[in-house]
Amino acid sequence: MFKLHLVHFLLCIHFANGAPEGYLPIISCLEESNIPQDYPNTSNFSQDSLDYNLRLNFTPIAIAVPSTVPQVQAAVNCAAKLGIKVNPKSGGHSYAGHSVGGEDGHLVVDLKYFRETKVDSATNVATIGPGARLGNIALDLYAQGERAMAHGICPGVGIGGHVLHGGQGYSSHTYGLLLDFLVSAEVVLANGSVATASNTSNPDLFWALRGAGMSFGIVTSMEFRTIPAPPENILFYYPYLWNQTQAHAGWDAWQAYCGGETTPIIPPAMNVRWVIVDGDDGLLLFLLEGAFHGSIEDFDLSIAPLIDVLDEIGGFQGNVTGVVGWLDALLYANSNGLYSNWDNNQTLETPLNYTAHATFFAKSLMTRNLSPAGVDAWINRLYATGPTSPTGWYFIVAAQGGPTSYVPTVPADSTSYAHRHSIYEWQLVAQTNSPPFNDAGITWLNPFVSDIEAAESNLTLGMYYNYADPTLSKEEAHERYWLQHYGRLAEIKKSVDPDLVFLNPQTVGN
Ligand SMILES: Cc1cc2nc3c(=O)[nH]c(=O)nc-3n(C[C@H](O)[C@H](O)[C@H](O)COP(=O)(O)OP(=O)(O)OC[C@H]3O[C@@H](n4cnc5c(N)ncnc54)[C@H](O)[C@@H]3O)c2cc1C
């Protein structure tokens, strides 16, 4: 008791100015339970409460930084007892600031010390902590028997949020989403207990975790199947500078190739996407890029049905193709200097206290081939407003699904991820170099979605939680992210977290 009074006294002296309102009881409870934490008004608190997206800025009531599962349990118990909402943070890359609450006043449980990757050499099953980042995981898997998994592209992304809501990247068309590699998870639940979730243990919880994990608990460890790292990888990059008519023709060719209308169509080994950015004089730059897991001869044959048509359209700026090993393929670079699209200086190794940030607003869409009216609406909007946007922007449309993809081979209802029927994952981003973000970028971006949907007979299209859009109402978010799976998710939430201990503005059950 004396110790507790002393703690209160010291905290009052040190943190009275500008500390989150009402923080003392939770800080004391964390102290009493010996849970390491970031104290308000310290540089650790400022750093760990920053989301990747600097457009958003939320102040947690406290930040627990546990390094053991009992500490995670005790942190959840403290928050539940005090009626404080809890959010797990793994890599902190949420587009909507959800791992720091998505609003002020939540307890953040920062899992940065849960970052080990260990491969069992007999089974090739990897046990990975949720705070591990994709680049470090790739290095560790490769070092332990040249193993690999399919996952997203940026090395700094944390595996916790990424896998629990999908996880798509340059190998997903061939090998699946990262969540398709997950075989079990250890979870701290709202009542402070620890559960194992797998197909045979708590299968409903396991179903829910694979698509909507943030709503159901704090995952503290995961087991994944792994595959041999693909030895031969072709990276490619074909840029086209197009006017509106060319872009329209290019989009038709792309849909025919990825959606199954040409012969031959995209093979399983091909992973391809468009990155679209502003060009000059009303032209836009369409970069066709991706990775092919196979020989250069097979790549040439496989890409030809698309490239031959695109080349006839014109505007070709000269391609780059490279044959690289697995780790270089992940970096989108090789030792001879093949470019990296995202960051020429990036490495797979990512430090514990990673500090990269961006300032942006993003929307996502999950679609099949657009109808002719939908293609018209999309390309018209792109050329009508792209060259005069109020902020910088880039759009990415990845062919993760479709007739030859691994993704739809997993039964659509076997996980809560709701988008296996989609062919394309769209990411539409308006950005500024640093805060403050110009909110005109939000009103500029929204009509891309509404125009496409209006042209598709007012279809309500799915959206991807890993590209969370905080401007969606909770009802809209539930429908868009989880589609036909939302009802079952809401039932499971009621049974494992009836008091909504795990809550952000868009969680299941909110
Ligand atoms: C630069 C960048 C590149 C990206 N590239 C890709 C890509 O190529 N492909 C792709 O699919 N996505 C990509 N994303 C999106 C990324 O997958 C999501 O932002 C993902 O949720 C980030 O996970 P995290 O652990 O880093 O984030 P966090 O912000 O820590 O978590 C995101 C969400 O998951 C919850 N969560 C985190 N950890 C846990 C846990 N242990 N238990 C339960 N819930 C948890 C959080 O509460 C939050 O709601 C990218 C994002 C960025 C910023």
From TrEMBL:
PANTHER family with a match to the protein in the record: BINDING OXIDOREDUCTASE, PUTATIVE (AFU_ORTHOLOGUE AFUA_1G17690)-RELATED, FAD-BINDING PCMH-TYPE DOMAIN-CONTAINING PROTEIN
Keywords attached to this entry: FAD, Flavoprotein, Oxidoreductase, Signal
InterPro entries cross-referenced by the UniProt entry: BBE, FAD-bd_PCMH, FAD-bd_PCMH-like_sf, FAD-bd_PCMH_sub2, FAD-linked_Oxidoreductase, Oxid_FAD_bind_N
Signal sequence, start to end: 1-18
Names of required cofactors: FAD
Chain ranges of the FAD-binding PCMH-type domain: 56-229
Gene3D superfamilies: 3.30.465.10, 3.40.462.20
Molecular functions per Gene Ontology: FAD binding; oxidoreductase activity
Protein name, UniProt field: FAD-binding domain-containing protein
Family recorded in the similarity comment: Belongs to the oxygen-dependent FAD-linked oxidoreductase family.
